[in-house]
Amino acid sequence: MLKANSAKIRHFQVEPSLPEALKPLIDIANNLWWTWNYDAVELFVRLDQNLWTQTKHNPVKLLGMVSQDKLESAARDEGFLGQLQQVHQQLKTHVSRAPWMPDGQKDPNEYSICYFCSEFGMTESLQIYSGGLGLLAGDHLKSASELGIPLLAVGLLYRYGYFQQYLSSDGWQQETDPKLDFSQLPVHQVKDASGEQVKVSVRLPGRDVKIALWKVKVGKVDLYLLDTNLPENNTEDRTITGQLYGGDMEMRIKQEIVLGIGGVRALEAIGIRPDVCHMNEGHSAFLGLERIRRLIEDNDLAFDEARQAAAASHCFTTHTPVPAGIDRFPPEMIKRYFKDYHESLRLDMEGLLALGRENVGDKGEFFSMAVLAIRTADWCNGVSKLHGEVSRGMWQNVWPDVPTGEVPIGHVTNGVHARSWLDPQLVRLFDRYLGTPWREDQADKDVWRGIAEIPDEDLWRVHEDARQKLVVWAKRKLRTQMERQGKSPEMIRNHCEALSDDALTVGFARRFATYKRGTLLLRDMKRLERLLESEQRPIQFLIAGKAHPADGGGKALIRELVQFSNESKLGHRIVFLEDYDIGVARYLVQGCDIWLNTPRRGMEASGTSGMKAAMNGVLNCSILDGWWDEAYEPDLGWAIGRREEYANPEQGDDIESRALYDLLENQIIPLFYQRDDQGMPREWVARMKQCIGRLAPAFNTNRMVQDYTRKYYLPAARRAATMAADGLKNSVDMAHVKHRLHEHWDGIKILNINAQLDKPLELRQTLDVTAEINLAKLEPSEVRVQIFAGTIDNDGDMVGGSTIDMRHEKDLGGGKHKFVGVIEPTTSGRYGFAVRVIPGAELLDGFWEPGLICWDAPERPVAPVVEEKVEEKKVVASSAS
Q: What is the DSSP string of 18-80?
């Protein structure tokens, strides 16, 4: 090898010599649209099936390696040329299709969205992803393209793909880092008018770092990727985009500066200023600072004035259900990396640090990227209904005194890109019985009702073929890994021959972290062995997943599974398959019968692998967490437990492992092997149909992207336009309103609350409430006074709660004012209410400002108890604090 620092190496590109008739293959290979179009994939398979497998499904690399004889032969094949022309036309039609928009919404060409993420998983041959976050991001882009949403994206172009996993003979995970050859990937330099690659820079301590810009086409969507591996940078800085999630905290902050600040600058260098920016996780949160900085620079604004305009256009999606999963940096590190930058924001360093703190006054608190994103985005969401609830609780400290249910974090439940994950035979079956509408409107529940019309025999045959393909592939993969580990020929033969394409096949594939409990199955060896030893009703488990290189606990779980497989007399029924990636996942989610998921409840934000399985008719058996918590119904799959949460994790593991064994022994295995006279598992197939027909329209990324468009992208674009109108007048005005409110808020005092709580209320009667409030130097028009009312639990806490605006009735003088309101109970029960003051500015309606909420003192008795007398329909009220 000749090192680049030893001699000047001049670069040139050699491209495949394709016959003119085959030139459209270049367009198809260089647009990841092919990843969800089986006709396009078939073209490359027809060229050279062995090369297609050898290149890990990389058409760019295949075209560079395929023999000239095969190219010339294809150029003479009328059938191949006809298919090529058809596929090429499909691609051209796709990229020019009209966009989807909610009814009555404005033309989407009037706005643009930029989606920032640290990883993107579109295909196994472009290894710039590690797991669920990246796969979701890739599916997001694919659905945005299918829908025609005006979206582009920014990420990092890693020199080394996420590690390849192999196991030692005793099952301990080892890692190798594959180096990516960009010349053999569908990534291309973005060039300026002079033909030079576009480059920008960011400031790191003591030096500037150059960043080059590349582009990947994902259907209609442009994905821009940032690269610091440039001769202009020192050796250390060239490695910033070296590896996904590699290195220490210093490396992480450098990557996130490049992604957030560098990403915004790269877009501006090519003339793009998106109307809306979507931060998919907190890794890109520095983009908020950079967009604020540009507004300050261009418009001579104060920080708070610029923040109003920027935050209106920012969306933040959190995927992390536990605080430990958030990137946090020591204050000293932030001071070092932003030593000069904070001045361009017109903030002192403490002001900058406060943006990343839950408690702004705690100077020792680490700087949280999630909190920075929250404080610079008006729109925040979790990724499932349950995760939205978890997130509101996790980040409640950012909005002190705001009830958990009102913390402004919503949810958009994740989905998966259907055509990327469906078995090709299943796609053809859907085309036959559902028609083409299922491709165009995947969120339409009516379209999917056609699943019921598919003959049981046809659906089962397709599923059995998928299982057979899975088992053939698994045997081949298992043999290769066992031979490399030096296992005996007899052991290899026993394990490979034991895999059956007729056995009930359970899949478990995901990142190996301790909370996912990958070894829950091994908790009771005697019960497990009873399950595995049956020859009449065999069951086999195919397991895959990677642990983070630094996660010893996750690696230990993998080793425990592998050692069971190696040492138990029934170990051949539990197989661990190395190097989990998109290709491995595709085999598993298409070919298994059961998809197993065993996280500790509340720690799985979503769990998209189960959605991929469900679309293929694979039935889920899972803890009620993430997506399954809202999807589960008894005829769709199985639930492990009943939403219990345990103070003692060991106790929870014991109970839930027993519940899993019970389900397998008493329900799943008997149902799978329950056959009619034709050998058909009718009840099982009925569940498969219900699973596909009801879950596919609800949990696909086309529905998800439509939800983002309705709930976040369009409202953000409108709010951003409102803030920017008249030279940013509304943004400046809002900053001044907030400044005035913060200046005088502590002077607000709720002096007296009056309500008749000493006698019964009839059910349909109302409760009049008056409040005397000292607003100090604020006017009644600057605030909203509200009754917050709801039912009371046994601890005296209010459950749920709804708001009732109170009307200003009288100025009492000296800053004091009287407000009146009415509570109208609609059901009997034990009720309570409290009075609060919040900002009244129109532009703040629906947007909480941290610190601007004032409640009546908690010791004041304000909660009536409402009980129903059946015979008289009366409400008995008594006071409670």
A: --GGGTHHHHHHTBGGGGG-HHHHHHHHHH-HHHHHHTTS-HHHHHHHS-HHHHHHHHT-HHH
CA distance 31 to 26: 9
Residues 83 and 136 in one domain: no
Nearest to 214 by CA among 153, 257, 271: 153
Closest CA to 44 of 62, 24, 22: 62
Q: Which domain holds residue 90?
A: 20-95
Burial of residue 650 (number of CB atoms within 10 Å: 0-12, 13-18, 19+): exposed
* Same-domain check for residues 672 and 799: no
714/597 same-domain check: no
Contact 185, 124 (CB under 8 A): no
String of b and e for 276-310 (b: at least 16 CB within 10 Å)? bbbbbbbbbbbbbbbbbbbbbeeeebebbbbbbbb
Name the residue among 563, 578, 592, 591 with its Cα closest to residue 480: 578
Please give the pLDDT value at position 17: 81
Residue 777 counted as domain residue = yes
Same-domain pairing of 572 and 600:
yes
Residues 6+ apart with CB under 8 A from 297: 344
Residue 394 CA to residue 329 CA, distance in Å, equals 19
CB 409 within 8 A of CB 382: yes
| Nearest-angstrom CA–CA distance, 60 and 699 | 32
Our measurement of the distance from residue 161's CA atom to the centroid of its chain's CA atoms, rounded to an integer in Å, reads: 21
Tell me how far apart the alpha carbons of residues 318 and 374 are, in angstroms, rounded to a whole number: 9
- C-alpha 304/C-alpha 117 separation (Å) is 26
Contact (CB, 8 A) for 509 and 609: yes
CA 56 from centre of chain: 25
Segment 127-173, tens digit of pLDDT: 999 989 999 999 999 999 999 999 999 999 999 988 999 999 999 99
Residue 733 is encoded by which pair of tokens?
A: 């005005």
The whole-number pLDDT of residue 109 equals: 59
Q: Which CATH number goes with the domain that contains 846?
A: 2.60.40.10
Residue 864 has a pLDDT of 54
One domain for residues 713 and 687: no
Instruction: Calculate the alpha carbon distances from 730 to 336, 723, 727, 843 in Å.
Output: 35, 5, 8, 8
Secondary structure of 734-801 as H, E, C letters: HHHHHHHHHHHHHHCEEEEEEECCCCCEECCCCEEEEEEEECCCCCHHHEEEEEEEEEECCCCCEEEE
Secondary structure of residue 514 in the 3-state scheme: helix
The total number of structural domains in the chain stands at: 4
Residue type, 807: R
Whether residue 779 is found in the same domain as residue 661: no
pLDDT in tens, 377-400: 999 999 999 999 999 999 999 999
3-state secondary structure (DSSP) of residue 153: strand
68-77 — which CB contacts under 8 Å span 24+ positions? 68/17, 71/16, 71/17, 71/18, 71/19, 71/22, 71/47, 72/19, 74/22, 74/46, 74/47, 75/19, 75/21, 75/22
The overall average pLDDT reported for the chain is: 93
CA atoms within 13 A on the CB side of 686: 8
Domain membership flag for residue 10: no
**At a CB cut-off of 8 Å and minimum separation 6, what does 798 contact?**
403, 788, 790, 791, 792, 832, 834, 863
* For the chain, the helix, strand and coil percentages under 3-state DSSP, each to the nearest 5: 45, 20, 35
**Residue entry with tokens 């103070």:** 647
Q: Is residue 705 within a helix (H) or strand (E), and if so which, with residue range? A: helix 701-708
- Structure confidence at residue 872 (pLDDT): 41
Cβ pair 103, 80 in contact under 8 A:
no
